[in-house]
Automatic annotation (TrEMBL):
Residue intervals passing through the bilayer: 7-31, 37-57
GO molecular function: voltage-gated chloride channel activity
Membrane topology note: Multi-pass membrane protein
Top-level taxonomic group: Eukaryota
Gene Ontology cellular-component annotations: plasma membrane
Protein name: Chloride channel protein
Organism (species): Pristionchus entomophagus
Record keywords: Chloride, Ion transport, Membrane, Repeat, Transmembrane, Transmembrane helix, Transport
Main location: membrane
Amino acid sequence: QAIYPGIYAVVGTAAFAGAVTHTVSVLVIIFEVTGQVLFLLPVMIAVIIANAVCSYFQPSIFDSIIRMKHLPYLPDIRSTSSVFHAITVDRIMVSPVQFISRETTYRRVHDMLIMMPRLRAFPIVDSNESMTLLGSVSRTQLEDMLDLKVGFGTS
């Protein structure tokens, strides 16, 4: 079987570019430039292995440029570096959930504002049955709405 040095050059170039940039999109660029889908497997294996090895040893060229120019960036977040990753929503949510839907009356909004004085925003759902979250409304907006529509607020 014949040995084509051009194939090795393309595989090596793709592996080098993938390792430097820490991206796998180099595969698409190489196949668009060369038009040879026949060498998909060797190029893919080389890029993935080079990317994995280089990711272990050093940051990508883009991260290096950001650090050299002292630009703001998001640091790497390790899975065990923060206690907040272990907090589940049931530990911080108000139970039972106080929400506003199309069926909610002004009296109910007034009662919720009095019952929950520390809650700053209330979720808005489409109906009491489906409970699909549509957004939220702040406490001050609700108080202003009550004062405007009904004439009584919580204060």
